[in-house]
Amino acid sequence: MRMDLAEALTVIELMRGQIAALEQQVCERDRAMRELRTEVELRGFEIARLRHALYGDKRERFAPEPSAPAEASAPSSALPDATPGNDGSSSAPAEPLKRRVREHERTINVRGKRRHLELDPARVRDEHRHLYPDARACRCCGTAMVEIGEETRVVIEHEPARFRRVTTHRHKMACAACKHGGVVIAQPDDPPASGPGMVGLSLAIEIALRHYADHLPFHRIAGIFERDGLRIDRATLSRVGGRVADALARLVGCMEAELLASDDVLGIDGTGIKILASPRCERRTIYVIHGRGHVVFRALDRADAEHVLEGFEGFCGVTVADAATVHTGSFAAALRVIVALCNAHARRKFHEARGSDPTRAEHVLRFYRRVAFLERSWADLDPSSRQRERQALLGPAFEALHAWALVQRSEVPARSPIEAALAYLLSHWEGLTRFLHDGRIPWTNNGSERLLRHVAVGRKAWMFRGSFRGARRACVLWSLMLSCRMLGIDPRRYLHDTLDALARTPHKELSGLTPKAYAARLQAARVAA
After folding, report:
1. Alpha carbon distance 403, 504 (integer Å)
2. Are 165 and 173 in contact (CB under 8 A)?
3. Pairing outcome for strands 338-341 and 318-321
4. pLDDT single digits (tens) 220-256
5. Contacts of 385 by beta carbon, 8 Å cutoff, 6+ apart
6. Distances in whole angstroms, Cα of residue 203 to Cα of each of 95, 200, 208, 244, 475
7. Can you tell me the distance from the alpha carbon of 414 to that of 416, in angstroms, rounded to the nearest whole number?
8. To the nearest 10°, the Cα dihedral for 324, 253, 285, 214?
9. pTM
10. Which CA distances in Å does 473 have to 90, 169, 470?
């Protein structure tokens, strides 16, 4: 009996050891599964990030999810309606600010209303049709009816394009008596910007507008002209566009020199473009520089800092850009370029991290939503007033966000999207908050992104440029088209007036032909009228 008890105890101990070993194996398996699951999630987030970098995102807005019952890892708001002081008390009432923002939004909505159809009176030919009833006499007594009113209906009809064929006759004259005075001939007209061919100035401008402003490739432009009665091949269209760009290149160079010689705030950004080459397309970069009423595009064969920042040696202002090395690296530091970084890029990092850590990510997204709300309400203020508002309301809020990010970075998993977002925010903090100390600086570089969207949309239409020289020519016309759009002037009218005056304008007076100067003359004429 004692032997049976001892054996039973031994068996029990052995089974306990086996159970402990199995439990340890289960724990190790669970730990390995958690590590693999985490690795799969990280790889999934990395794939999503790469897809976003390649294809972009249709939109980044989202409906805020309801807050969790207890958010221990994030405060309720880093930027409340009434900005708290150091002791937690409210230092500014929120209601007047909310009222100003509501009034501003209401003004935007009122200004944003447009008519469905609106014609320029200078470009419309009015036609009136009068329709009378067939019966002019009363059906009862036969008395002639008199007109007591009318009903009107206005419709807009479209006439296909009409072309003018202008033939210039240069007459030769000679003396009929002595025949020794020689032959004289009328002086030729100034050659149009399209060159010595049959394409006139207005047709050349129309070709440039449709290709470089409306994103139409040359084969579609040729098809449109053929429907209107003009047969023209793609090679001629390309040649005409290049000649117009060559005629205006000096003007864009003057705009670029004026930008880089200023001490203002300039936005810069770049996007890729393909150049047709054999055996495969070459990748080049289009950069935009804008500010002071000018938009200038550059075609770069290399996207390093030396080429991107060419001409910035004497620039004394501030550039607004992303945190790429070409903007913030050693070459930019050697040039003493002051860079204000784009907060939209910092926000995008947290938007990408929503899937892995929604609580922390949405906390920062709510913060930036409030910043955008306030910045929109200050859009009509002068720079000094905007700077005072920023320092009063946004300064303490950004300090609170910085303190919160320092605490959270030590608690989040390494290599996670939220860790990368917090690292980006903290490592570029000085550049991201530079806009708080200068009312001229925008808080994002979305203006540059919108200008580059013109190139990106057109890139989907023509896929590539035929040559790097063609890309440079495209930058000339893109610069003028986007400058006209930003200033609210008609690019067709501007190109016609400018190309007509360009041959008579010396190089030192080219600044008077820029879209900015042209818009100022139009405004002065409207005021005088």
Report:
1. 62
2. no
3. parallel
4. 999 999 998 999 999 999 999 999 999 999 999 999 9
5. 378, 439
6. 57, 5, 9, 11, 20
7. 5
8. 120
9. 0.78
10. 57, 33, 5
